[in-house]
Amino acid sequence: MKHTHRDEDVHKDLSNRLNRLEGQIRGIKGMLENDVYCDDILVQVAAVKSALDAFGMKLFEDHVHHCVVRDIKNDDPEINYKTFKSLSLLSRRLFI
């Protein structure tokens, strides 16, 4: 598994987003346990999906702005090729 350093503000933002997602998931579980009407639960599920997509997009943007740019600045054709190939595969997984 690769590791990367994230700026403190990005790390804090991503962590806060995950904390909110955890809270939303716990809320959905509580709604289910309290036999809340399906429509109301499904609205919360849609909100979680949207929040998770926003988390993923924020992480993807940070990845491009830092990791990908760093690798491309390396000027090593092999690293550039691997980085481009990885970004292409990742884009397909995220957006298709």
Structure report:
With 96 residues, this protein is an all-alpha fold. It has helices at residues 8-33, 38-73, 77-95. It is elongated, with a radius of gyration of 18 Å. The model has no long low-confidence stretch (mean pLDDT 93).
Quickly list its features.
single chain; 96 residues; mainly alpha; elongated
Number of strands: 0
Question: What is the element string, with H for helices and E for strands?
Answer: HHH
Give helix % range.
over 70%
**Beta-strand share of residues:** under 5%
Rg, Å, rounded = 18 Å
Low-confidence stretches: none
Shape: elongated
| Main sheet: strands, sense, barrel | none
| Cα-to-Cα separation, first versus last residue | 25 Å
Total helical elements: 3
SSE-based structural type = mainly alpha
Summarize the entry for a quick read.
The chain has helices at residues 8-33, 38-73, 77-95. The chain is an all-alpha fold and 96 residues long. Helix 1 (8-33) packs antiparallel against helix 2 and helix 2 (38-73) runs antiparallel to helix 3.
Task: Give the SSE map.
Layout: H1 8-33, H2 38-73, H3 77-95
Helix pairs in contact: 1-2, 2-3
